[in-house]
């Protein structure tokens, strides 16, 4: 016992100078400065079917935490009504983050034809967005508005831009509130129009059937099940249901390739809109 204690004391005496020397050689540790991004929106942002997973996994550094709280089937109305916005607000607490940013994208489920979700475009939709902006700021976060991702339906070679009114409403709210704007709708519509209907089918969660692809090759998309050109409101309500998640071919949701492509557009626009984030965004 005495011999063991003696050896321990000797070892401690020998290690103390080495530890002191090592401590003297180390520079002072600088506290890190980390921020957070919270994603809020519908299925075109969400973990399944949206650009959010690629954005969080591939486009932010380890100094920018990324939390995807977007949910399929949600509009600017029911995202708040069900309590999802309360969860997002809890994620916006500043401490210990240097800054928290919240990206907000709605529009798809605010369109007519979606009972319990649709909102009135002229007044209700912009009022909802303004309230999100105000409450995010009150929570200490920086809100960034995102115009809705385009759908990929075509008629005679021309992209059907049925979400443009909601994109324009979002732009107006950004201008009126001074919130940074990521104009994903403008970027995505230009890119999808340029590639054409057939090439754009590759962005879906599942490959199209031969019949659907053949129609797209003519410049006009048809119903995902092979039917006639769909009426946008009815077809898109069916493609964006509330409830059980699914993987299928449609012209709204995106798989991994589409997520990578459109997340890249979000990153480019976000770096321009919020220069302070640029150092922690990966192109």
UniProtKB/TrEMBL annotation:
<feature type="signal peptide">
    <location>
        <begin position="1"/>
        <end position="20"/>
    </location>
</feature>
<comment type="similarity">
    <text>Belongs to the 'GDSL' lipolytic enzyme family.</text>
</comment>
<keyword id="KW-0378">Hydrolase</keyword>
<dbReference type="GO" id="GO:0016788">
    <property type="term" value="F:hydrolase activity, acting on ester bonds"/>
</dbReference>
<feature type="domain" description="SGNH hydrolase-type esterase">
    <location>
        <begin position="40"/>
        <end position="187"/>
    </location>
</feature>
<keyword id="KW-0732">Signal</keyword>
<dbReference type="InterPro" id="IPR037459">
    <property type="entry name" value="RhgT-like"/>
</dbReference>
<dbReference type="InterPro" id="IPR013830">
    <property type="entry name" value="SGNH_hydro"/>
</dbReference>
<protein>
    <submittedName>
        <fullName>Rhamnogalacturonan acetylesterase</fullName>
    </submittedName>
</protein>
<dbReference type="InterPro" id="IPR036514">
    <property type="entry name" value="SGNH_hydro_sf"/>
</dbReference>
<dbReference type="Pfam" id="PF13472">
    <property type="entry name" value="Lipase_GDSL_2"/>
</dbReference>
């Amino acid at each position: 016992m005495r011999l063991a204690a003696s050896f321990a004391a000797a070892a401690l005496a020998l290690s103390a100078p080495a530890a002191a020397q090592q401590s003297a050689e180390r520079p002072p540790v600088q506290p890190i400065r980390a921020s957070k991004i919270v994603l809020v929106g519908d299925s075109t942002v969400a973990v399944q079917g949206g650009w959010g997973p690629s954005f969080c996994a591939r486009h932010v550094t380890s100094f920018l935490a990324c939390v995807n709280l977007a949910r399929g089937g949600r509009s600017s109305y029911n995202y708040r009504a069900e309590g999802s916005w309360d969860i997002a607000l809890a994620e916006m607490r500043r401490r210990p983050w240097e800054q928290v940013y919240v990206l907000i994208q709605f529009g798809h489920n605010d369109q007519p034809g979606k009972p319990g979700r649709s909102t009135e475009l002229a007044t209700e939709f912009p009022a909802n967005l303004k309230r999100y902006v105000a409450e995010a700021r009150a929570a200490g976060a920086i809100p960034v508005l995102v115009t809705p991702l385009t759908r990929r339906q075509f008629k005679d070679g021309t992209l059907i831009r049925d979400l443009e009114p909601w994109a324009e409403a979002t732009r107006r709210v950004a201008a009126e509130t001074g919130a940074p704007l990521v104009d994903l709708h403008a970027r995505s519509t230009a890119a999808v129009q340029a590639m054409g209907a057939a090439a754009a089918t590759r962005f879906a969660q599942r490959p199209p059937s031969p019949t659907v692809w053949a129609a797209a090759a003519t410049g006009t998309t048809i119903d995902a099940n092979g039917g006639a050109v769909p009426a946008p409101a009815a077809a898109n309500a069916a493609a964006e249901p509330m409830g059980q998640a699914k993987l299928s071919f449609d012209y709204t949701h995106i798989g991994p390739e589409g997520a990578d492509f459109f997340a890249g557009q979000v990153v480019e626009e976000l770096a321009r809109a919020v220069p302070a984030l640029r150092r922690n965004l990966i192109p």
